[in-house]
Design a protein that fits this description.
The protein has about 300 residues and is α/β, with parallel strands linked by helices. It is built from eleven helices and nine strands. It folds into two domains: about 190 residues, Spore Coat Polysaccharide Biosynthesis Protein SpsA, Chain A (Alpha-Beta Complex), CATH 3.90.550.10; about 110 residues.
């Protein structure tokens, strides 16, 4: 069986669409849908009633608003099926075969994690994204054995969870060249709230540092850890360039959190990798990359107190 965990917060407008994408699945009888109400100010009983004749669906309510990371973990702690899939209340599964692709591949191949493509509506692309929980299925016993859990942060809450899940498995993970998930752009989503940029940056760096330290403890490949540290540095550099409202002190405070990791692992990366990462994060294009690289290196020297 599969537990499909859906955190909701005032999600009446989008939840029916998400549930409808479960109802059309060819193996929906294998799914147990668990909605985690993160202390919404609205009710969902009528929506549950509309779908209960088609899918196995239940709802649990958290007495205090804690964020989607806490809600997902609450769902994990209160469900018991062999496999777990996560769905955001404003997203949908790609087509009626999504569960079949995910379930049969992980079950028949005895995998811990299966990764498929997700469509990003805003970017009009279909790709594999290792940093999110979208388009993936997890073996519950693996998550329990490795103590892989969500953080209770409000931003980047799934980053640590998925990066650990992907990197701690002993080669019992694979990619399927199939699309199973559609990430829909919701203008009311927390990710579009620019009033909390400081918290967003703090939570992202917390997630990266937490992941890197755990991978270091588990003696994972140094190149993987170096990639994470590099991404954190590039992220902070780009944020400082594009967001004029940010206080530089916020950036510098976060860099201190990754500075020791940077010193140890940055040597494992070559300049070409760094250029590609900056292009990816900044959309600057390769025409400007040499100038951006000069700025980035100056940024790093400044942070480290070098001339």
């Amino acid at each position: 069986m599969i537990d499909v965990i859906i955190p909701v917060y005032n999600s009446r407008a989008t939840l029916p669409r998400a549930l409808a994408s479960i109802c059309i699945q060819t193996i929906r009888e294998k799914a147990k849908v668990l909605i985690i109400d993160d202390n919404s100010t609205v009710g969902y009983d009528d929506i549950i009633d509309d779908f209960k004749d088609y899918i196995d669906i239940n709802i649990l309510k958290i007495p205090e608003n804690k964020g989607s990371g806490y809600a997902r973990q609450y769902g994990l702690d209160n469900s018991y099926s062999d496999y777990v899939i996560f769905l955001d209340s404003d997203d949908v599964f790609y087509n009626k075969y999504a569960f079949s692709v995910l379930y049969y591949a992980i079950d028949e191949n005895n995998l811990d994690v299966l990764i498929t493509k997700e469509v990003d509506e805003s970017l009009k692309t279909s790709k594999i994204n290792n940093k999110t929980i979208h388009g993936k299925i997890y073996r519950r016993s693996y998550l329990n054995d490795k103590d892989i859990r969500f953080t209770d942060k409000r931003y980047s809450e799934d980053t640590t969870f998925n990066l650990l899940a992907v990197n701690l498995t002993n080669n019992k993970m694979t990619f399927e060249n199939e699309t199973t998930y559609i990430y829909l752009d919701n203008p009311d989503s927390l990710v579009h709230d620019s009033s909390n940029d400081k918290e967003r940056i703090n939570d992202y760096i917390y997630s990266i540092c937490t992941t890197a330290k755990r991978l270091k403890k588990e003696k994972c490949d140094n190149f993987i850890i170096a990639q994470l540290v590099c991404e954190a540095y590039v992220y902070l550099f780009i944020q400082l360039k594009i967001n004029e409202s940010l206080n530089a002190k916020t950036i510098y405070k976060n860099i201190k959190k990754i500075d020791s990791l940077f010193d140890k692992y940055f040597i494992y990366l070559d300049e070409e990798y760094l250029k590609n990462k900056i292009v990816e994060k900044s959309d600057c294009g390769y025409i400007l990359i040499d100038n951006i690289m000069v700025e980035f290196k100056s940024f790093v020297r400044m942070i480290k107190g070098e001339k």
